[in-house]
Description:
By secondary structure, this protein is of the alpha/beta class.
Amino acid sequence: MIVISVLGKQLPCLFDSSITDQAKLHGAASDIVEMANRINAGDWSDAQRQAFLGTDRIVFFETVMWHGAAMTRPFMDQENATFYWEIDEFLTDGVDGPRRPTFFFHDCWHLAQYRRLGGPAKDIQDEVDREVDATDRQIECAQVLGCDPPFIDYLTAYRNDRSAIEARIGAGYEPGTTRKDCCKAQAPKAKKKPKRRWPFG
């Protein structure tokens, strides 16, 4: 475990036993500190600041059981304010530099939604609506951090494609497990996590 400081809050970062590659462990330990430094240097609104401060811990993993499902993509455990970050996505080329904090902020905003709206999404359409809102806020975060235009364009295209959003929500559940997500939507067929392909350098 390492502890980073995010806007004055001590944030524990734990490494699940599913990660056995030492290079990944060392890479994540270095990069998470760099991410915290970028967040701490940002000029944030009160709402953005409070969103960042809402998360109590980060857990890096490769596969983790959550509500009966073997998860292989990042997700926020909203009840426990814990962000589970799949280590390969954390280390993916194209998520480095100022882009990486925006993905953390995206899920911090989901936690803020959960608290503001009094609970989890009611159904899949509500979940998609929350994803659209979180992506809008992620774009604002990216602008604060000075992210490059191709990245902003990528987020905007994703925000405008509800079918892509539904596919992302449904991805990341290992075959043989049942999806039991926070909105308790009907379980789709299990899919292996798709490789993220970045349309920029």
